[in-house]
């Protein structure tokens, strides 16, 4: 890999992306946006290889598919890859991607909560309806996840689907990802339009922490490779954990920083600020 090639990738990861007119308003109203041509095919190919190698190196889920829970069948999940590889750290710390998050949240800057690779195997099942912020002991809804498919993602691969405007209502906020959340929220979310569609190569989505979303099973015969980063307002505060998952998150991703204080542990660097 030549230095000039690596430099060009790093330049792309730092270059500002011009948000189309009305995108910030769409995010605020509907709770998500899908943006085309955010990352080049060359960049995605390069980092897909690095991220995939780490996923298979670090993955601890080896049970046969038929022995797994619904959650375990949904994807292989490996977190904080940025601590395992300096090159992947360049990707996770992308100012291009973090600036989009900052603009969508309409804040002065964002910190990293954590990254996670989500690889839905070729026989992987559905990802049930859920809202991510159920898992996070954070004071404000100013959170957003970027979902980056590392390949073109047709419907048969199980792309992300969004229940539009569901972040505005406090329903289902006590539900973990499970068969129960899928059944209950399928009924509850009938009042909302669902946006589901394929992702082109280079297209990414951003969704709010309290927006309900799901993904279908992967029937493509190929793994659905996705990288995600969770961003939070740089001024986010830690609240007392409300469930066992938030307790674990407080200890793991926030390093048990004082409750009531800022979410600014060594694992939560500012990735973009004005």
UniProtKB/TrEMBL annotation:
Q: Which UniProt keywords apply?
A: Dioxygenase, Oxidoreductase
Which source organism does the UniProt entry give?
Answer: Dyadobacter luticola
Protein name, UniProt field? Phytanoyl-CoA dioxygenase family protein
| A Pfam short name | PhyH
A GO molecular function for this record? Answer: iron ion binding
**Cleavable signal peptide:** none
Q: Which cofactor does it need?
A: Fe(2+)
Keyword Oxidoreductase attached: yes
